[in-house]
């Protein structure tokens, strides 16, 4: 995917792939004619209500607990400006560019449905900001995940007004007014309801869910590769992964994971070496034997999260919302519970997947359980420490992932003078899931690096074509067993190979597509 691609944005749902193209790879966006038509039709109804004597929330009233005040016509432009300025109250570290761009394109699509009632020029300005690669500075803290991701989206809206700060395509931070001027974008003067329409959605947490689902799909395949390499290195058996045994418990994720393990371990000379009746072990430890059950449950959790994401990608979230028959109605669709729950659920699966990976690594390093491998896979145990401290690093990450698995969505804090008395904390759930995914990537990388070393130490026995191809890919950049070396750069190299799919491609070059 390249940044010269164009993603069309209209009333129809965006695909997860289109969100990734815009968010991560810088694709441009183009609003459809249907989008302009829908927005123009809905805007006419908002303008009717703005002129009416009866107060309409967000159009001629204040917001939240201040909704009881009717705002006179001459103050309504100020009302919208004040809303954005006051709500752009984020704090803490800056949020990643890909998250902000995901949030922007998802909110653009919601505007394009016409249900928010903004003028077409507002959506066009947001599209122009994306296409100019100007990314508003958004901060870590500020969203409670109810009434939408208010503060994060307000920082985006502030940039549309020519205020606040943005980063350009090179990553340089500058004043929004200067950046818009350079890009030839006219700042937006917000009219009735438009400030509220720009911020009252769950696009921040949804964008992070879409990105997380994309990344976890790759990591789940990497987890199967890691498990296969370790089972082989520890002289385990693949008989527990047989299709007829797996079918006795018909979870689709489990079946997919077991199929990967069978493919990766097929034709292993290491496994063949202990199938001659000399092995006295009846069964392997849980961390080996139950690998497809754990990874499979994580796969099924991911599939549920994708279902929720797909529904959200088809949603148009705002309050009030403009309906096709012209009604403008208040609602609670901005509550982030559906997204927050699955974000927390995924964090639990990530923590457990990392935990079983760390346990497998530890077995390879323990001379009492590694079935003939040297202590800590060291060249000269006692003089050398081998991978002893790499496992410490794993253990530290796993402990952190267990803390990150504590659900954010169970921790509502009332706000807005008790008007907003139950919130989702979905944004917080999304932020911790991003950290958890990074941690899982590192844990799996350490297991794979350790297993590759263990497989080398089984020489002259050779691994399966699938696991051997992964080990060979690692050896192109990371040397094999020997005296202790500076280990951190080797770990980081394999982290990148896990994250970018290099190791999956290596395995698939030998065994065909993995699931």
UniProtKB/TrEMBL annotation:
InterPro entries for the chain: Aromatic_Lyase, Fumarase/histidase_N, HutH, L-Aspartase-like, Phe/His_NH3-lyase_AS
UniProt EC number: 4.3.1.3
Source superkingdom: Bacteria
Post-translational modification: Contains an active site 4-methylidene-imidazol-5-one (MIO), which is formed autocatalytically by cyclization and dehydration of residues Cys-Ser-Gly.
Keyword Cytoplasm recorded: yes
Pathway in which the depicted protein is active: Amino-acid degradation; L-histidine degradation into L-glutamate; N-formimidoyl-L-glutamate from L-histidine: step 1/3
Protein name: Histidine ammonia-lyase
Species, as recorded: Thermopolyspora flexuosa
């Amino acid at each position: 995917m390249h940044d010269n691609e164009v993603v069309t944005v209209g009333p129809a749902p965006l695909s997860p792939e289109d969100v990734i193209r815009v968010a991560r790879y810088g694709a441009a966006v183009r609003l459809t004619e249907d989008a302009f038509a829908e927005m123009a039709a809905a805007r006419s109804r908002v303008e009717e209500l703005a002129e009416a004597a009866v107060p309409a929330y967000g159009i001629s009233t204040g917001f939240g607990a201040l909704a009881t005040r009717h705002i006179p016509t001459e103050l309504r432009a100020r009302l919208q400006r004040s809303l954005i300025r006051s709500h752009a109250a984020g704090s803490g570290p800056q949020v990643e560019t890909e998250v902000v761009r995901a949030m922007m394109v998802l909110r653009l699509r919601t505007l394009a449905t016409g249900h928010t009632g903004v003028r077409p020029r507002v959506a066009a300005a947001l599209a122009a900001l994306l296409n100019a690669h100007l990314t508003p500075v958004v901060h870590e803290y500020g969203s409670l995940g109810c009434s939408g991701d208010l503060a994060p989206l307000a920082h985006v809206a502030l940039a549309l007004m020519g205020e606040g700060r943005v980063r350009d395509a090179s990553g340089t931070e500058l004043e929004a007014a200067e950046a818009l001027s350079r890009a030839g974008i006219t700042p937006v003067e917000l009219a009735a309801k438009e400030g509220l329409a720009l911020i009252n959605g769950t696009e921040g947490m949804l964008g992070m869910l879409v990105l997380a689902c994309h990344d976890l799909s790759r990591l789940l395949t990497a987890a199967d590769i890691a498990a296969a390499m370790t089972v082989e290195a520890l002289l385990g058996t693949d008989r527990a992964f047989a299709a007829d045994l797996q079918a006795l418990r018909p979870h689709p994720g489990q079946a997919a994971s077991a199929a990967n393990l069978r493919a990766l371990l097929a034709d292993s000379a290491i496994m063949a070496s202990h199938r001659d009746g000399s092995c006295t072990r009846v069964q392997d430890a849980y961390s080996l034997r139950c690998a497809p059950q754990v990874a499979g449950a994580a796969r099924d959790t991911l599939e549920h999260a994708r279902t929720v994401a797909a529904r959200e990608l088809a949603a148009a979230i705002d309050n009030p919302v403009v309906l096709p028959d012209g009604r403008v109605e208040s609602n609670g669709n901005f509550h982030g519970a559906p997204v927050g729950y699955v974000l927390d659920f995924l964090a639990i699966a990530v923590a457990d997947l990392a935990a079983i990976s760390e346990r497998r690594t530890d077995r390879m390093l323990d001379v009492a359980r590694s079935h003939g491998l040297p202590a800590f896979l060291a060249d000269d145990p006692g003089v050398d420490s081998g991978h002893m401290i790499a496992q410490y690093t794993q253990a530290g990450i796993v402990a952190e992932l267990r803390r990150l698995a504590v659900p954010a969505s169970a921790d509502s804090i009332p706000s807005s003078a008790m008007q907003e008395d139950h919130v989702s904390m979905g944004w917080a759930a999304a932020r911790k899931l991003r950290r958890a995914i990074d941690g899982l990537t590192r844990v799996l990388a350490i297991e794979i690096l350790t297993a590759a070393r263990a497989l080398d130490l089984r020489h002259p026995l050779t691994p399966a074509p699938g696991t051997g191809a992964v080990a060979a890919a690692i050896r192109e950049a990371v040397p094999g067993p020997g005296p202790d070396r500076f280990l951190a750069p080797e770990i980081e190299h394999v982290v990148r190979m896990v994250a970018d799919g290099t190791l999956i491609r290596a395995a698939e070059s030998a065994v065909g597509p993995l699931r």
